[in-house]
Amino acid sequence: MKDIVITGAGTVSSLGIGFENYVQRNKNKESFKPENIDIDSSCGNMDIRRNDRFTKFGLAAFKDMIDNSKYLDIDPDERGAIVNTYLGPLNTVNNFMHTAIYDGLSQASPMLFPNTVINAGLGRISIEYKLKGVSYMLCGTNPLFYAMSDLQSKHSKVVFVGGMDDAKSHLAFVEDEQRVFYESAAFIGLERRVDAETRGAAIMAHIIGMGSFNYVNRFDCADIPQEKIYAAMKKAIDDAEINVEDIGRIYLFSIEDSTETKAAKSLFDKCNNKMVYCRTDYSSFLSAGEFFTLFDAIIDMNSHRYTDHTLVNIKAFDCIISLVIK
Amino acid sequence: MKIVVTGLGVLNCMGKNKDDFWKRLCNGESGLKTVYPDEVNENNIMQVGGIVHDEDQMLTDSGYTRTTQLAMVALDEAIRDAGLAIDDSNKERIGISLGTSIGGYQEVEKYQRSLKNCSKYDPENSIQVYPAYTAHVIAGKYGIEGPLVTNGAACAASSNSFGNALALMRGGKCDVVITGGCDPVSYMSQCGFVSLKALAKELCRPFNKDRKGILIGEAAAFLVLETYEHAKARNARIYCEVAGYGCSNDAYHTTAPDPKAGGAIRSINRALNDAGIKACDIDYINMHGTGTKLNDVMEIFALDQIWGEQAKNVHFSSIKGSVGHTLGCAGAVEALASVLTLYNEAIPPTALLEEPIAEGYSVVKDKTIPKKMKFAMSNSFAFAGNSSCIIFGKYEEKSEG
């Protein structure tokens, strides 16, 4: 059984700048639409000048999370960060290469190059908030497993996990109208329950079970096998040391009829539509979108004071993760 | 949980397999040579570098980026070296943990060049810019269906990928994780390091008083990590144990290392703690050793801080004078070199080192020295502050029962 708690959340996307804004729009059941996000409004002057849009999204979401917590009371050596991105600072890479190829090397800014490395955003956040614990910049890999692993090994007191991407199309530099992406960033703070309670942190959700299965992403939007999703959900329930009947609510990553809904119906004999929630398909939000279904579950749980065990399915770039939270 | 190394594969300017690489490393050779413009691209600005010359036509699958092609060759050797058969019975228990800095960003360069030359760019290829693309392609090629993880922590990417690999194995998700890295020589990295004035013009001389910066090399390297039980069950040859791992972040500066070596000291101490050993147990350190003014001084400082009076007794070297800075692959190539050092009980010299940065330290130069060893350490430090340390332990075959 897992004993990890979520003690903070922050996000910036067209679903809302700031977690509170996200909550409000969620409660109002507003649908999302592409917006040109004024990310600079969430950054200080220095951050606006020296960072690219990719890093600004990460910084803004992280600041949103940290402003509502007392994380900075924790020893910097025990503050870790594991961040995911699908595409990294692709726009900056494109700008840098454009300048170098068209205008010549002398015009390529030494200030721009450090922003072309994938972990630039993680670095800026680590500098700003003195994160000296575990530090991973992942690409297309959901960070939840690695964060929980680090916490269970007691290497860190808190691990911030999140995703950040500033891509607006399938690729920033190739027109692809079939896949429009929404630039976004999201973070949550994870702690061992005993540590969070000791420091008097406000607990948003308690993760007691986790199951997952991995798949090779062949970039072809193929359906995830039903039996694999079933197995991930079952594993999460077993990990939580509860029974299928103890689950009161299920949050799915997909909408309407899908292999996921079939898997849910197969696992939960008494499953009915009242039990299943699927607000929207967040896959267009890339790495940050992996957290939005979890956000929806947490918001409902806290605003309606549900005490049921809740199962949350997350579709990541290379795996399906099922979490049991309460 | 005891985790062991059972397979190695490498491709770089010093060799197209582990045996060639090791032989030339022990000879103190440097594979860094004059680079001709058509070897890299039309605007090549790198005068000397570590290019993989493909006379044997190993890199034949031109539909993929060079990053992926390099990875395929090294991965193939690692799997063969481990004698690992991948089939339906184990494919979901085998994972890949890969580090890369450039990844598929070479596609961006292709795209920009096509715009400039008014030539057609095939959007189908653009899918390769996903940094995770290579891991998924090579997994698909070998039928691997366990967890895949791509780490993008710049020059510490493939050493950080060890941490991810260990988490997967210790967490019970995998019996085997093939971990490593790959990065090509790219115009972007050349331009970037030139713009930072960090690229040397002729020689890369780590830990030399007169050192002028880095030279870029390209490489792919993979190590097959396996639980001890799994390796023994299939009677695999064991190179060494993975004794410990630690990582941290400098949280200091985007491109410069913390002069007080905060990240380095923390990651080394965490690795020692993970291994359950003391600093004095380390017999050899494969340093990050870039040959830049700031990095090499920082590493000596870390050595002094952790080893204290014993600092001058610890043997260390850098292989970047031989293979160049292979960016996201550096951690994997150096880890592989550390494994061979431990396995062969011989420490190769730091190529091109003439006058060491500080007197009295046990930096290995001129020739390979034989040494019985129990533990070898490999360190990596990166832009954005990522730092990591891997400790390998000598594997001693004990009689069963």
Descriptive report:
- The complex is a heterodimer of chains A (326) and B (401).
- Chain A is of the alpha/beta class.
- Chain A is built from eleven helices and eleven strands.
- The model of chain A has no long low-confidence stretch (mean pLDDT 90).
- Chain B is globular and about 65 Å long.
- The longest helix of chain B has 17 residues.
- In chain B, helix 6 packs across helix 12.
- Chain B is built from twelve helices and 14 strands.
- Classes of the chains: A alpha/beta (326), B alpha/beta (401).
Kindly name the structural category of chain A: alpha/beta
Structural class by SSE content of chain B: alpha/beta
The radius of gyration of chain B is: 20 Å
Radius of gyration of chain A, rounded?
20 Å
Low-confidence stretches of chain B: none
Molecular shape of chain B: globular
Q: Order of helices and strands of chain B, N to C?
A: EHEHEHEHHEHEHEHEHEHEHHEEEE
Tally of helical segments of chain B: 12
Name the chain pair whose interface involves the most residues: A-B, 66 and 73 residues
Helix content of chain B: 25-40%
- Find the count of extended strands of chain B (DSSP E, 2+ residues): 14
Q: What do the pLDDT scores of chain A average to?
A: 90
Helix share, percent of chain A: 25-40%
Termini separation of chain A comes to 13 Å
Main sheet characteristics of chain B: 10 strands, mixed
The general outline of chain A is globular
Q: Approximately how much beta-strand content do the residues of chain B carry?
A: 15-25%
Quaternary structure classification: heterodimer
Through-space gap between termini of chain B? 20 Å
